[in-house]
Amino acid sequence: MIGLGTYALFWEMSDRVPDPLTLAGAFERTRELGEALFQICDYAPLEGMSDAELRDAARAAREMGVAIELGTKGIHPDRLRRFLEIADIFDARLVRSMLRGPEGSPAPDEAREQLGSVVGAYADAGVTIALETYEQVATRDLVALVGEIDSPALGICLDPANVVARLENPRDCVEQTADLVANVHVKDFAFDRQDGWVGFTYSGAPMGSGLHDYDHLTRIVRPRERGINEIVEHWLPWQGTAPDTVRTEREWTRRTLEHLRRTPK
């Protein structure tokens, strides 16, 4: 299933624009674009919302016919237990996270212990924890951690753009994680020369124009065949003004959705 994430609406939901899009507005935008899945990922206000406010947001999503996934940072058991409670309110079946969070970056043994203490509750609830590929940890180490815990409620959120920062090849990341992927973040990326030809900027690119071989990812991971959701994101730099940035963000979203809809199953 194709969906949008908060990073696809990053600027439009931010305080850099005069009238930021609300969470309910993001659900509505998702439906306007013809999709029915939204991932609330790294959305800071979520953790400050009361249960009543969360229920109101969940009700809005259900009334619009939008399924919800969640995303946070860190694997401290208290954090993951709280997000399991939030997942229950939203009927969410997936919580994306990463090893490093506000509580710190656990060593491998600590990470196994922390995840092991909560993964059973996630399995009982039918919710999956998807740990994202990041520059913070080598892909092989993330694969080893998930493999050692060996739970159907623990997988990998594949975002090969992130691992370039630790000099990993995105295609290698795809191939190493393929069997364990539970969620895919979809964005293109590229290097651009800085002014004066002094160095490069590594940033987002309109889908299909950058370095991401998404056809390779779909061949190896087979997300449609395996029922793995594909969540649209962007790394869009600020475009100088709020109207230009929002306009470009919307165009990148439209282009990415069109690309995904053309991708063979």
Describe this structure in words.
- This protein is α/β, with parallel strands linked by helices and 265 residues long.
- The chain has one domain: TIM Barrel, CATH 3.20.20.150.
- The protein is built from 10 helices and 10 strands.
- The protein has helices spanning 23-32, 45-48, 51-64, 77-90, 108-125, 139-149, 170-177, 214-221, 223-226, 242-262, and strands at 2-5, 37-41, 67-71, 94-97, 128-132, 154-158, 181-186, 188-193, 200-205, 229-232.
- The strands form 2 sheets. The chain has an 8-stranded parallel beta barrel with strand order 1-2-3-4-5-6-7-10, surrounded by 7 helices. It has a two-stranded antiparallel ribbon with strand order 8-9.
- Helix 5 (108-125) links the parallel strand 4 (94-97) and strand 5 (128-132).
- Helix 1 (23-32) packs parallel to helix 3 (51-64) and helix 7 (170-177) packs parallel to helix 8.
- It is globular, with a radius of gyration of 18 Å.
- The termini are close together.
- The mean pLDDT is 96.
What keyword list fits this structure?
single chain; 265 residues; alpha/beta; TIM Barrel; two-stranded antiparallel ribbon; 10 helices; 42% helix
What is the helix fraction of residues, given as a range? 40-55%
CATH class (first level) name:
Alpha Beta
Count of separate DSSP helical elements: 10
* CATH homologous superfamily grouping: Divalent-metal-dependent TIM barrel enzymes
Detail the poorly predicted runs.
Answer: none
Q: Into which percentage range does the β-strand content fall?
A: 15-25%
N/C terminus separation? 11 Å
Envelope shape: globular
Number of domains: 1
Identify the CATH architecture: Alpha-Beta Barrel
Average pLDDT, rounded to a whole number, is 96
Q: Please state how the strands of the largest beta sheet are arranged side by side.
A: 1-2-3-4-5-6-7-10
